[in-house]
Amino acid sequence: MRNLFIISLLILALASCKTSEKIVYIQDVEPGVPQKISPEQTILIQPKDMMSIVVSSKDPDLAAMFNLPISSYRAGTDTPNYNNYLQGYVVDNDGDINFPIIGKIHAAGLSRWQLQEKIKAELKSRDLLKDAIVTVEFMNFKVSILGEVNKPGTYKIEGDKVTVLEAIAMAKDLTIYGLRDEVYVIREQNNERHSYKLDLRSTDIFESPAYYLKQNDIVYVQPNKVRAGQSTLNQNSLKSVSLWVSIASLLCSVGVMIANILDN
């Protein structure tokens, strides 16, 4: 009896170790051993991006000519509804923005820092604003997180830097049914769609081109077999219930018909 108890404990311990191997993040990290950080990939402006561009100067009236009005229009009316909504510049399919006075400026393929310097140089070279301070921000930097996470949805990113681990944290972490080694990042870039598979249990994720997310990336967490089995079981259960309800309804109808015949 005692030997059986010890064997049971060993089986439980082994099962626990096996389970932890499936759910623990970054298992191969060595505490106290520094790792070289790979250069992060700069977010580049793409067609259909929306950019916030603000120009400031010692002369606010002069700088105001280069800034879009901070307002929005209520649908169905011609009256502006001022609610501190900052309008943005949409990058067209050719990669250009239409900037006040200057005209078209090619923005696609540049970082926001490079676009800042490009606009500043244009203003200075055309003798429009000598002391311009230009600030460029992304207005449409968002990522969608789907699958086995506790709070799936689309999340707006402040700034222009977010890692896949930070994005998962925004979605309140993976559920217990999420496969840590089956996390996919789907990215559309240069008219192509790329898919990257990440294993959150390994430090290899730090070297992946999908570790740092880009605008409009989709993060999808694959469910494990238990969750998939639950889904199938639920569907079969619903089908079984529906079948038995139909049979019961048919039997009731037949019973009513027989009762009417006997009464007559």
Task: Please describe what this structure looks like.
- The chain has 264 residues and is an alpha+beta fold.
- Among the domains are: 50-138, 2-Layer Sandwich (wza like fold), CATH 3.30.1950; 141-225, Outer membrane lipoprotein wza domain like (Outer membrane lipoprotein wza fold like), CATH 3.10.560.10.
- The chain is built from five helices and twelve strands.
- The strands form four sheets. Strands 9-8-12-10-11 form a five-stranded mixed sheet. The chain has a three-stranded antiparallel sheet with strand order 4-1-7.
- The termini are far apart.
- Residues 4-19 and 233-239 have low confidence and may be disordered.
List the helices and strands and how they pair.
Elements (H helix, E strand, L loop, with lengths): L1 H22 L26 E7 L3 H5 L5 E4 L6 E7 L2 E2 L5 E4 L3 E4 L5 H14 L7 E6 L3 E6 L5 E4 L7 H7 L7 E12 L2 E7 L19 E6 L1 H39 L1
Parallel strand pairs: 8-12
Antiparallel strand pairs: 1-4, 1-7, 2-3, 5-6, 8-9, 10-11, 10-12
Broad CATH class of the domain at 50-138: Alpha Beta
Order of helices and strands: HEHEEEEEHEEEHEEEH
Biggest sheet strand order reads 9-8-12-10-11
Low-confidence stretches: 4-19, 233-239
- Helical content stands at 25-40%
Distinct helical segment count: 5
- What name goes with the CATH superfamily of the domain at 50-138? wza like domain
Structural shape: extended
What proportion of the residues form beta strands (DSSP E)? 25-35%
Report the biggest beta sheet as strand number plus sense, adding barrel if it closes.
Answer: 5 strands, mixed
Task: Classify the secondary structure makeup into a structural class.
Answer: alpha+beta
How many runs of DSSP E, i.e. beta strands?
12
